[in-house]
Design a protein that fits this description.
Elements (H helix, E strand, L loop, with lengths): L1 H18 L7 E11 L2 E7 L2 E6 L17 E8 L8 E3 H18 L4 E9 L2 E5 L4 E5 L18 E10 L4 E5 L1 H17 L6 E10 L2 E5 L4 E5 L20 E10 L4 E5 L11 H4 L5 E10 L2 E7 L2 E6 L21 E10 L4 E5 L7 H8 L5 E10 L2 E5 L5 E5 L9 H4 L8 E10 L4 E5 L6 H5 L8 E10 L2 E6 L2 E6 L20 E10 L4 E5 H16 L8 H13 L1
Parallel strand pairs: 13-15, 18-20, 23-25
Antiparallel strand pairs: 1-2, 1-4, 2-3, 4-5, 6-7, 6-9, 7-8, 9-10, 11-12, 11-14, 12-13, 14-15, 16-17, 16-19, 17-18, 19-20, 21-22, 21-24, 22-23, 24-25, 26-27, 26-29, 27-28, 29-30
Family: Belongs to the bacterial ribosomal protein bS1 family.
Organism: Litoreibacter halocynthiae
GO cellular component, one term: cytosolic small ribosomal subunit
Length: 559
């Protein structure tokens, strides 16, 4: 009976053991640390099963494992029995399963999660979120590019989950979102304490070619280059450096975009308030060239006060030259104030006005009739341009090149660079024009006709007989007497009745010094003699014939 009872009890216990639930593979179970040896923890997970886990699976990133014999831990059961007859278990997988449950809830509730950056991968970093590994893109590390992520490694800090897929095991997080949110709160608080026109201290964080960003204590403001100083600032680095503390004034606050405009010059006296009294019209001052453009040059009269020298006011003589060929940047120049517009903050300056008008100087030093010498600068179809003193030119018109022949033909005798002499015939200061004459150098005509005037009777010599008249010469000056002027009597108006070398008395009808021509006429002499005879010896009304009167006159001349 006793034996049968023992067998029954054993059968009951055996059946009970078969009926007991064995843990499912792929599930998380609780276990107890039995021992720690050879870098591993031996864990009893019950059901008469034990397994081994490397100690590193119990360590947080950058820390050593904190586990002791007797500790209860949760592990993941991969297989009930491995090749060594032990359960195949993992702490990492247990933590991962636990972490995914926790992270999915945080993602659904849009809550922050805590993690630590522990590795670098292509395009970003890996983050341990308490068992689950997430990807942190490089653009999501900070609000600004991070050159050295070393100080962030292993540091526990909050992250925002951007995307997660449990089936694929992908999690993407952002540190930047946390910083931006925190910064936005701080920014709103700082902006709320600022007012337009307020003077505050700030630290220069960044400098660009158009200005500088100044940290006002959690919020950045833009200090534009035009608001740094009243004077022209070509490069903000001239007056600012990164890390420097500066006092600025809040010019404008955009509540919607949280953009702040700052200024430094607004805290200084405006030099334009005294410009009208300090720089009188037509007064001359010394300034520095700060900028050169196609239309002129800007000259700084004092810090904050600039004037424009228009290209038309730069030189008396250089009309079509770029301003950069007349002045250079940073050059000290003397200028004259031509106009001031305080409302528009503009000063018109003149460079050429500080020097005498070269045409006025030339007119004073070279009166009409004076002989000058200069170099042929240019040859055109209507004359020669001759270089004179002070970079001005004079023009010799075609008609003033030679007395003999055509001016167009005479141009061929000249080349650029030739030195020529000429006589000043006209100076027009307003039109900036000087007229010269080369042919006026020949003064033989003036000498020949000295004392000869209209109405004079002179003796000439016939030099040529032509169909239309005769050519005669007087003291080296040649003239032409037309057929109609050869005699009062039409029958005697025949050129062939004269011979070369004949001496003739003629009357001067015109003296043209410009063309070097004498107007001569035998007919005019005869008419003048007749008139004089009539006046002296009678008149046609007395009954005397013209022959009688002329005969009496001739007889009187003979006596």
């Amino acid at each position: 009976m006793a034996t049968n009872a023992s067998m029954d009890e054993f059968e009951a216990l055996l059946n009970e053991s078969f009926e007991m639930d064995t843990p499912d593979e792929g599930s998380v179970v609780k276990g107890k640390v039995l021992a720690i040896e050879a870098g591993q923890a031996i864990i009893d997970i019950g059901y008469k099963m034990e397994g081994r886990i490397d100690l590193k699976e119990f360590a947080e990133p950058g820390e050593s494992a904190k586990i002791e014999v007797g500790d209860e831990v949760e592990v993941f059961l991969d297989r009930v029995e491995n090749a060594r007859g032990e359960a195949s278990i993992s702490r990492d997988k247990a933590r991962r399963e636990e972490a995914w449950d926790r992270l999915e809830k945080a993602y659904a509730d849009e809550e922050r999660v805590e993690g630590a950056i522990f590795g670098r991968v292509k395009g970003g970093f890996t983050v341990d979120l308490g068992g689950a590994v997430a990807f942190l893109p490089g653009s999501q590390v900070d609000v600004r590019p991070v050159r050295d992520a070393g100080p962030l490694m292993g540091l526990k800090q909050p992250f925002q989950i951007l995307k997660m897929d449990r089936r694929r095991g992908n999690i993407v997080v952002s540190r930047r979102a946390i910083l931006e949110e925190s910064r936005a709160e701080q920014r709103a608080e700082v902006i709320g304490n600022l007012t337009e026109g307020q003077a505050v201290d700030g630290v220069v964080k960044n400098i660009t070619e158009y200005g500088a960003f100044v940290d006002l204590g959690g919020v950045d403001g833009l200090l534009h280059v035009t608001d740094m100083a009243w004077r022209r600032v070509n490069d903000p680095r001239e007056i600012l450096s990164i890390g420097e503390t500066v006092k600025v004034q809040v010019i404008k606050i955009n509540k919607e975009t949280h953009r702040i405009s700052l200024g430094m010059k607004q805290l200084q006296d405006d030099p334009w308030e005294a410009v009208a009294n300090k720089y009188a019209l037509d007064s001359t001052h010394t300034g520095r060239v700060t900028n050169i453009t196609d239309y002129g040059a800007f000259v700084e009269l004092e810090p904050g006060v600039e004037g424009l020298v228009h290209v038309s006011e730069m030189s008396w003589t250089k009309k079509n030259v770029h301003p950069g060929k007349i002045v250079s940047t940073s050059q000290e120049v003397e200028v004259m104030v031509l106009e001031i517009d305080s409302a528009k903050r503009r000063v018109s300056l003149g460079l050429k006005q500080t020097q005498r008008n070269p045409w006025e100087v030339f007119a004073e030093n070279n009166p009409v009739g004076k002989e000058i010498e200069g170099e042929v600068k240019n040859i055109t179809e209507f004359g020669l341009f001759v270089g004179l003193e002070n970079d001005i030119d004079g023009m010799v018109h075609l008609s003033d090149i030679t007395w003999d022949g055509r001016g167009e033909d005479a141009l061929g005798d000249f080349r650029k660079g030739d030195m020529v002499k000429a006589v000043v015939t006209e100076v027009d200061v307003e039109k900036e024009r000087i007229s010269l004459s080369i042919k006026a150098l020949d003064g033989s005509f003036d000498t020949a006709v000295d004392g000869v005037k209209r109405g004079s009777i002179i003796t000439v010599e016939v030099t040529s007989i032509e169909d239309g008249g005769i050519e005669v010469e007087y003291e080296g000056a040649k003239s032409f007497i037309r057929r109609s002027d050869l005699s009062r009597d039409r029958a005697e108006q025949r050129p062939e009745r004269f011979g070369v070398g004949d001496k003739l008395d003629v009357r001067v009808t015109n003296v043209d010094a410009k063309t070097r021509r004498l107007g001569l006429s035998i007919k005019a002499r005869e008419i003048a003699e007749e008139k004089e005879a009539v006046e002296q010896y009678g008149s046609s009304d007395s009954g005397a014939s013209l022959g009688d009167i002329l005969g009496a006159a001739l007889k009187s001349d003979d006596e």
